[in-house]
């Protein structure tokens, strides 16, 4: 209790009241929108309304509604920031906020200006008809950043998935020596603060001549992606029926065939979602890039980071919107894989 | 039956087809299997040792090793160690000092210049930089002894024994000075460890603030995650899968995107302020500062880390049979009692997993505080990055990093003991 009191007195009081007021206002406006959405989609404001038993008392009913309202607020809190940036990225003005024109749905208040800027920024001549593509491909800042990002992410994903899957197979063997020690070592890149890791790599990679190279960043990102691959692949191997391996060997399959025909199909969903995790981790990672990369290797998040720090423009919001769309795509794939894997292992009803 | 007889019976009891005792054969096979399992993990272990463990080890080493003194003054560094710290050192020490400085000035090797020495001494004795660089410029005029007088002629300040004591300390390659600085301590004139001046006491309080803000963030994450996870775990599959998207989408969205979004929402010209002004709650000229301070850091970090709390809580709550609560109710427990004494205790593994994970992650957060933290909302990671990138006091940065690493590893160890690292999962 004292701790909470101290926190509130630590914070500037005026700030705090305003903060609470603001959050409430935001939540109310947002939840009105969400409620309307739910009514539109499901015909009821709280579509996740649970059926109460007939004997429920008035108090319980009131509590139930309060509880569901609180939950709605929290969901709104979770999703609002991601939804807010989408319309803002179509702003015709160079502001980070809704203009009056946007509020009244005036079409002239919306534009694709910032999306065009993603491509044009840094080009020598965006108006040129000849050599436009080459100019864009080589000079546009964001395009170069995107190329760097994808190149680094793909390389480190391949490395992390290969090494991680092998290690996960080893870790899930019943005879693995020092299992817990090695597991904690292999998971630790996820736990150790990025700044510490990046600092260490900055010194070490400078000494061996890897800083300011693609290889250095790829190694750093592989390190970061490995824990995800281990966790997801190990998850698909829990409850793995080891007699399947014996059965296959019994029927004359050698080690490689057993792996290809029996183990691989079972761990494939885990491998793919681990790979996607590693991919998105690399694509999103900025600390190691800040410490290790030269201007040559600027990635999308690095570009965003300096954009936010230096010259804030809605181009960042446009990029952010594109990234959100990409993460929706990746999320869909991972969810489909997870359900497929659960069905295959009979953990969940189809 | 005596034990020897038993052993004998065991040893010559069963043989495998190739004539080896079964026990031995089994041991051999097990060893082979263990070896194979280990070999599968070996590539990754080696990879991590090179790309991750060695760099961090080198950083730890750097936090105690700073050879700037002996690099610039190789001869002097050895001679000064015999000095008894009374009065001024003897003439040979002065001679070595002058000759080493002349040498350094002539060679101008990277990392071995008078400037490097000046910077290093300045860490321990602020305000001496110009003495060293100024003397460095004039040192070539000294051609013959007595060197003590010559040096004093260049600058009177060399008369001060404190400088020579500091130089003696700096000449040693291994020093605890940077850990002392990281813990707000310094050497006094006598070479004893004392607390730093009030104005310079920033690191311990920053560690405290980091832990404190992480605790606040963890607390808010827990408060927000508990009801949501409960709802998700009790809803029918279809509805909960749909709502789960609202949790997983932020989880999959770029950290920078979410931080940007919070800037757009919270800044003075941002969405909330505009709405408040539009409604009339706040005057246009007194817009609220909600970002670039602690508040901004806490709000955006709670949002960013919330999924890390919801997912482990949810996975534990899903395993609690709903019939337990019904049983508690049917035996006359009030809803509150049934929740408090039957449901809540079963969620504790999930709570432990979630809170520890969120706490560990938030201690080391860098990006979000750097972007929305302003002056008072930054964490210890930001100070480390500042020393590595801006002030270039690498040893201090490394020492701060080492302390942070120890804190994180302690919590990681607790996590491993309480929850088990293999319980970690996503989605």
Structural class of chain A: mainly alpha
Largest interface: A-B, 110 and 110 residues
Oligomeric state of shown chains: heterodimer
* Total count of helical runs of at least 4 residues of chain B: 20
Radius of gyration of chain A: 26 Å
Output the CATH homologous superfamily of the largest domain in chain B.
MetI-like
Which sequence of strands runs across the widest sheet of chain B?
1-2
User: So what's the CATH class of the largest domain in chain A?
Assistant: Mainly Alpha
What does the main sheet of chain A amount to? none
- The second-level CATH architecture of the largest domain in chain B is Orthogonal Bundle
Q: Give the rounded overall mean pLDDT of chain B.
A: 87
What is this structure, in a nutshell?
Chain A is an all-alpha fold and 350 residues long.
Can you give a write-up of this model?
The complex is a heterodimer of chains A (350) and B (427). Chain A has 350 residues and is mainly α. Chain A has two domains: 2-86, no CATH class; 132-344, Orthogonal Bundle (MetI-like fold). Helices cover 73% and strands 0% of the residues of chain A. Chain A contains 15 helices and no strands. Chain A has helices at residues 2-10, 13-42, 58-88, 100-103, 113-120, 132-139, 141-171, 179-191, 194-207, 214-237, 243-250, 255-284, 287-292, 300-309, 315-344. The longest helix of chain A has 31 residues, at 58-88. Chain B is an all-alpha fold and 427 residues long. Chain B has three domains: 3-62, no CATH class; 68-175, no CATH class; 203-423, MetI-like fold. Chain B is 70% helix and 1% strand. Chain B has helices spanning 3-11, 22-64, 68-72, 74-79, 91-107, 114-124, 129-138, 147-154, 161-170, 177-182, 203-234, 237-252, 255-266, 271-279, 294-317, 322-330, 335-363, 367-372, 380-389, 394-418, and strands spanning 185-187, 193-195. Chain B has a two-stranded antiparallel sheet. In chain B, a hairpin with a 5-residue loop joins strand 1 (185-187) and strand 2 (193-195). The longest helix of chain B has 43 residues, at 22-64. Chain B is flat and about 100 Å long. Chain B starts with a helix and ends in a 9-residue tail after the last helix. The chains are: A mainly alpha (350), B mainly alpha (427). At the A-B interface, helix 2, helix 3, helix 7, helix 8 and helix 9 of A face helix 2, helix 11, helix 12, helix 13 and helix 14 of B.
């Amino acid at each position: 209790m004292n701790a909470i009191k101290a926190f509130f007195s630590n914070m500037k009081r005026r700030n705090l009241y305003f903060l609470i007021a603001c959050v409430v206002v935001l939540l109310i406006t947002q939840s009105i929108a969400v409620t309307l959405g739910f009514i539109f989609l499901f015909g009821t404001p709280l579509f996740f309304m649970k059926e109460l038993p007939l004997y429920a008392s008035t108090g319980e009913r009131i509590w139930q509604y309060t509880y569901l309202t609180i939950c709605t607020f929290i969901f709104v809190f979770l999703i609002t920031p991601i939804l807010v940036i989408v319309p803002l990225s179509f702003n015709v003005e160079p502001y980070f906020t809704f203009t009056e024109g946007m509020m009244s749905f005036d079409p002239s208040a919306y534009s694709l200006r910032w999306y065009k800027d993603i491509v044009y920024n840094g080009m020598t001549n965006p108006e040129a008809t000849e050599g436009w593509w080459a100019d864009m491909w080589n000079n546009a800042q964001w395009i170069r950043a995107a190329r760097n990002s994808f190149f680094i992410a793909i390389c480190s994903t391949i490395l992390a998935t290969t090494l991680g899957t092998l290690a996960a197979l080893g870790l899930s063997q019943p005879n693995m020596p020092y299992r817990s020690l090695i597991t904690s070592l292999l998971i630790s890149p996820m736990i150790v603060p990025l700044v510490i890791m990046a600092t260490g790599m900055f010194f070490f990679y400078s000494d061996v001549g890897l800083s300011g190279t693609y290889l250095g960043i790829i190694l750093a990102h592989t390190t970061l992606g490995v824990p995800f691959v281990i966790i997801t692949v190990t998850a698909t191997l829990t409850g793995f029926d080891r007699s399947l391996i014996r059965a296959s060997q019994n029927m004359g399959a050698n080690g490689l065939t057993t792996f290809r025909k029996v183990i691989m199909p079972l761990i494939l969903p885990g491998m793919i979602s681990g790979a996607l995790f590693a991919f998105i981790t690399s694509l999103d990672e900025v600390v190691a890039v800040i410490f290790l990369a030269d201007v040559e290797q600027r990635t999308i998040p690095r570009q965003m980071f300096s954009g936010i720090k230096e010259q804030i423009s809605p181009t960042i919001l446009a990029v952010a919107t594109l990234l959100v769309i990409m993460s929706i795509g990746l999320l869909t794939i991972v969810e489909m894989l997870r359900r497929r894997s659960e069905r295959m292992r009979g953990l969940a009803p189809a | 039956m005596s034990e020897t007889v038993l052993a004998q019976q065991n040893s010559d009891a069963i043989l495998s087809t190739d004539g080896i005792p079964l026990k031995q054969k089994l041991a051999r096979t097990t060893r082979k299997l263990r070896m194979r399992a280990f070999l599968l993990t070996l590539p990754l272990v080696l990879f991590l040792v090179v790309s991750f463990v060695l760099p961090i080890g080198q950083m730890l080493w750097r936090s105690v090793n700073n050879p700037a003194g002996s690099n610039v003054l190789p001869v002097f560094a050895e001679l000064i160690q015999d000095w008894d710290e009374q009065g001024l050192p003897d003439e040979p020490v002065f001679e070595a000092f002058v000759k080493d400085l002349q040498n350094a000035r002539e060679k101008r090797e990277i990392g071995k210049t008078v400037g490097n020495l000046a910077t290093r001494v300045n860490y321990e004795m602020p305000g001496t930089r110009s003495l060293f660089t100024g003397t460095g410029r004039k040192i070539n005029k000294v051609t013959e002894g007595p060197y003590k007088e010559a040096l004093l002629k260049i600058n009177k300040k060399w008369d001060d024994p404190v400088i020579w004591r500091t130089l003696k300390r700096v000449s040693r390659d291994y020093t605890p000075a940077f850990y002392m600085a990281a813990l707000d301590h310094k050497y006094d004139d006598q070479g004893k460890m004392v607390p730093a001046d009030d104005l310079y006491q920033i690191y311990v309080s920053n560690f405290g603030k980091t832990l404190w803000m992480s605790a606040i963030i963890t607390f808010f994450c827990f408060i927000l995650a508990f009801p949501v996870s409960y709802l998700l775990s009790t809803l029918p599959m279809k509805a909960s899968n749909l709502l789960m998207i609202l949790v997983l989408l932020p989880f999959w969205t770029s950290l920078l995107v979410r931080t940007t979004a919070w800037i757009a929402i919270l800044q003075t010209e941002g969405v909330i302020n505009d709405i408040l002004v539009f409604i009339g709650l706040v005057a246009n000229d007194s817009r609220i500062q909600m970002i670039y301070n602690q508040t901004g850091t806490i709000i955006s970090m709670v949002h960013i880390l919330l999924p890390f709390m919801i997912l482990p809580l949810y996975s534990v709550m899903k395993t609690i049979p709903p019939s337990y609560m019904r049983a508690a109710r049917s035996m006359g427990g009030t809803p509150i009692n049934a929740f408090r004494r039957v449901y809540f205790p079963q969620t504790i593994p999930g709570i432990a997993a979630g809170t520890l994970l969120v706490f560990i992650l938030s201690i080391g957060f860098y990006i979000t505080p750097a972007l929305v933290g302003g002056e008072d909302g930054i964490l210890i990671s930001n100070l480390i990055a500042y020393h590595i990138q801006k002030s270039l006091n690498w040893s201090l940065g490394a020492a701060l990093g080492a302390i942070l690493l120890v804190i994180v590893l302690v919590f990681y160890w607790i996590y491993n003991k309480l929850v088990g690292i293999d319980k970690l999962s996503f989605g």
